[in-house]
Amino acid sequence: MNRRVKGWKWRSGLLATIGTLLFVIGMIGPVQSQSANADYAILIVGDEGTAEMLREEKVLINEMAKTIRQQTPDQRLPIYSYHFNKERERAYCENKLNVLSEDLLFVGIVKLKDKVPLKVVYRVDRISNPARAANDILDRAEEILAESSPQ
């Protein structure tokens, strides 16, 4: 009897994990398959070493997620997240994207080449209101996608 209960719990946990994984793949899959969106992404740059900034970054991501859920797949951009406490990401942000430590918490729209951020095309530095910054970035992303899509 005891073995059946343990086996049942294990199976239900596995099914829940698989279900969650399929849901996440379903949400991410359409974003990456869109060729019009393959040229741009949303980039968030923060510092995981600072608790306050980490909290603000999570608020920013949650605000973006609320709006992104309402968008159609062709309106969505992938979201990249870099952190200044990781030396490689910091060097790339400073040298290639001109995002400096005084610009944090940073969110912007970047042009991609082979899924790597190449150039910042729109930026919001030193975010103090994550909800407003999220709406600003997503509105500008819609404009950029409309400009870049063939008529």
Strand content: 15-25%
In what order do the strands lie side by side in the largest sheet?
2-1-3-4
Mean pLDDT across the residues is 80
CATH topology of the largest domain: Glutaredoxin
Oligomeric state as shown: single chain
What CATH architecture label of the largest domain applies? Answer: 3-Layer(aba) Sandwich
Topology, pairings included?
Blueprint: H1 2-33, E1 40-46, H2 51-70, E2 79-83, H3 87-96, E3 106-113, E4 116-124, H4 130-148
Parallel strand pairs: 1-2
Antiparallel strand pairs: 1-3, 3-4
Describe this structure in words.
The chain has 151 residues and is an alpha+beta fold. The chain has 2 domains: 1-33; 36-148, Glutaredoxin, CATH 3.40.30.10. Helix content is 54%, strand content 19%. It has a 4-stranded mixed sheet with strand order 2-1-3-4, sandwiched between helices. Helix 2 links the parallel strand 1 (40-46) and strand 2 (79-83). Helix 2 (51-70) packs across helix 4. The longest helix is centred in the first third of the chain and has 32 residues, at 2-33. It is globular, with a radius of gyration of 19 Å. The chain starts with a helix and ends with a helix. Mean pLDDT is 80; it is low at 29-35.
Give a concise summary:
The protein has four helices and four strands.
